[in-house]
Amino acid sequence: MAAASNEPRSRSLRRGTKIAAGSDRANPADSTASSDAPAHRSHTGRAVWTTLNRPFAVGFFLTLGGLVAILLGMAVTSLVTVWIYVAFALFVALGLNPVVQRLQRHGVGRAWAIVIVYFALALLLVAVLWLIVPTVVRQIAQFITDVPTLVTSFQQTDLYHWARDQFGDQVPAIVAEVQKFLTDPGHLAAIGGGVLQIGISIGTTISGMIIIIVLSLYFLASLPEIKQAFYRLMPARSRSLTADLTEQITESVGGYLGGMVVLAFFNAVVSFILYTVLGLPFPALMAVVAFCLTIIPLVGTVLFWGIASVVALFASPLSALIFAVAYLVYMQLEAYVLTPKVMNKAIAVPGALVVIGALVGGTLMGLLGALVAIPVTASILLIIKKVFIPKQDAAT
Fold this sequence. Notes:
The protein contains 14 helices and no strands. It has 396 residues and is mainly α. It starts with a helix and ends with a helix. The protein has helices at residues 2-52, 55-78, 80-105, 110-155, 158-167, 170-183, 185-192, 195-221, 223-232, 239-277, 283-294, 300-315, 317-342, 351-394. The model is unreliable at 1-13, 16-45 and 188-195 (pLDDT under 50).
């Protein structure tokens, strides 16, 4: 009986011993965990103090990182010409894409449509080089030769005598300096950077045009694939909106660039007709100048109007006045009739933003920046209108 009563007591003692042993085994782990935190803190502190105690190593790695950043910046800067070629080629492809799509809507395959468009473009370039360039070169040489005659004719006009009576001897001195500057071969060479530099510039321009044409051909041929690859980079929930925005932006950019070329062509034709009818010198040269200047948005037309009026003034003040008035009338016709019809597919941009965009683009990237400023501004406005404003309206 005593043995039976002692058995439960021994079991409870053994159970208590196991629990105590388990708690003893658990306590070292807790103590280890609690002791690890000070060890970790001390290790971090040692790392910090080790870094502070090795200033030369820290300075070396910081200097090495700065040098790598500088080298990357220099590499990007040295590739500016490549980026400009790529941007020009992309905008040329976007400008030709509406023509290709129009041919596709008439049942022509995309490959054949691209071939037709580039064949027509090649014929146009050959015609320009064959018909216009020799005439322009000849008229430039004639202009340099006829500068003294033009100045002498201008000195016999009533306008010159009126200016001399109003401003005194400063007018003859200014005219003499202008004539001396324009007829000095050294100044003409300095303007172009020397004969060798002129040849290098011409060669660089021709090679750049070839590169741009080839790149634009590749971009135009693979434009749908480029768009699809860009869509795949976006999250699945945003792909439909991204595709819609991309299509609107590319269509508006293509329409804008094509419209600018058409308007510049109209300006060149009007300038050539006015100069020819009024008997003013260098009509072909002024037509080329008109095309090159009026393709610049907003300020190009006004700039050419001033230059062409001044050149006409040296030949005949009356003809210059008629040209200035007639071209001013054409500018109004272009602004209120031609531009709305030609630019009907482009996104409307407020006038203040057009001025700001053209100034910023021209300052940063020159002619390319001035050309792409309005499409980029229109694209930003479209993104704000389609993405940012709906998010703000949905926010509560």
